[in-house]
Amino acid sequence: MGIRAGGWRAMAGGLVAKSCDSCKNCAAALFCRADSAFLCLTCDAKIHAANKLATRHERVWMCEVCEQAPASVTCKADAAALCVTCDADIHSANPLARRHDRVPVEPFFDSAESIIVKTAAALLCRLPQFPTPKRHRSVSH
Ligand SMILES: [Zn+2]
Ligand SMILES: [Zn+2]
Ligand SMILES: [Zn+2]
Ligand SMILES: [Zn+2]
After folding, report:
1. How far is the CA of 121 from the centre of ligand 1 (A)?
2. Residue 9 and residue 27 in contact, taking contact as beta carbons nearer than 8 Å
3. Cα-to-centroid distance, 74 and ligand 2 (Å)
4. Given a cut of 60, is residue 100 above it in pLDDT?
5. Do residues 86 and 37 lie in contact, with contact meaning Cβ atoms separated by under 8 Å?
6. Segments forming the whole domain that contains residue 65
7. What is its main location (predicted)?
8. Would you say the C-alpha torsion 102, 115, 122, 62 has a positive or negative sign?
9. Whose atoms come closest to the Cα of 28: which ligand?
10. Is the pLDDT of residue 127 over 80?
């Protein structure tokens, strides 16, 4: 299962990603259905780690195309999570796309951070950049 962030974003062209309802600083990476809130990874971790009940909150990723709405289906052919609007848009575009196999998006209950490690979606919340050590390549003639 591959979630690609960024690939689609270029196509959406200049749309500003929805910001986190909690800190209003980061781009929202997911939507908590129980809270009806868009959250970035940091706030998700903070809010949902705070109490045991909250770990039962159903969360879904943001739509990878518009980043404005929670994803509702995953298109296997596109390997992308799409909201209702984008799903309709993209898959009504041509007869081939209409045949794409789509499944309802699977909500997750774990901390998004533990899942995100495997996905490029981590880039959505501009994580602090680690200083890259300069590589000195010794060139000997
Ligand atoms: Zn936040
Ligand atoms: Zn929640
Ligand atoms: Zn969308
Ligand atoms: Zn598709």
Report:
1. 15
2. no
3. 21
4. yes
5. no
6. 7-124
7. nucleus
8. positive
9. 1
10. no
